[in-house]
Amino acid sequence: MRSTSRVLRTAAIYVVLLAGAVITLAPFLLSAMTAFKTPQQFAQQPALAAPDPWTVENIVTLFAGPAGFGRALGVTVLMAAFILVFQIVFSIMAAYAFARVDFPGREALFWVYLATLMVPAVVLVVPLYLMMVQLGLRDTFWGLVLPFSFGSPYAIFLLREYFRGIPQDLVDAARLDGASTLDILVEVVVPLSRPIIATLVLITAVSQWNSFLWPLVITSGDTWRVTTVATASLQSQYNGNWTVVMTATTLAIVPLVVLFLVFPKHLVRSITISGFR
């Protein structure tokens, strides 16, 4: 009886997991299938039916038409790469200062800075927008990236806790060998912190690639439009042509799928640490 109940419990767990997987993957499968259908096929065939015949007409329309989706992809790559590099660099430097450098008010300043995590991001949109307007950076690349380039409270918190776990003896030994603070950070701390840095790289890359609200607010034309905003505008631009919209959606998630396939362990670790909040 005990073995039977265990088998039934295991079977029930797998059924629930399978149902969850189907519910999660169905929208992505629907998007990918629709991307290779004509509008007529989309209207006449079942939603999850394979395209018959397959067509790349939607991709041609998306890149050759007035949507400017190719430029939006390029802007998104440039924005995400810029913010990723600068946010990780500044977060590492700030986290090391909070973890290993003694200066007056260090703990108080850290907790005050960390308290900004409690402020909803949407509350900061209007002040940031007014600042960018005053600086003349509205609808520019710098206005798009600067507010998120100088570190992240969440990243600094994680890195600080990880840096504090590095044995002090290693830092002291490097200092006795004549290493400066920057040398210790670059040659000792960073190499020992590769797992957490790789995790933060993935978290930052995914969050910036999916960024929508700030690019929508700070940009107004096609020049610095990102993929999320471009995809949203397609719904009105193509007047309900869902095959083109689904093509844009599918292309927008391809880089994230590639990240998952190339770095599955780090991505799972990032989900465990962050919960993708």
Short summary:
This protein has 277 residues and is an all-alpha fold. Helix content is 73%, strand content 0%. Helix 4 crosses helix 8, helix 4 packs antiparallel against helix 11 and helix 13 runs antiparallel to helix 14.
What does this structure look like?
- This protein has 277 residues and is mostly helical.
- It has two domains: 1-55; 68-274, MetI-like fold.
- The chain is 73% helix and 0% strand.
- The chain has 15 helices and no strands.
- It starts with a helix and ends with a helix.
- The model has no long low-confidence stretch (mean pLDDT 85).
Describe the secondary structure blueprint for this structure.
Layout: H1 2-35, H2 39-44, H3 57-64, H4 69-100, H5 106-114, H6 125-134, H7 141-145, H8 153-164, H9 168-176, H10 181-192, H11 194-209, H12 213-218, H13 227-237, H14 242-262, H15 264-274
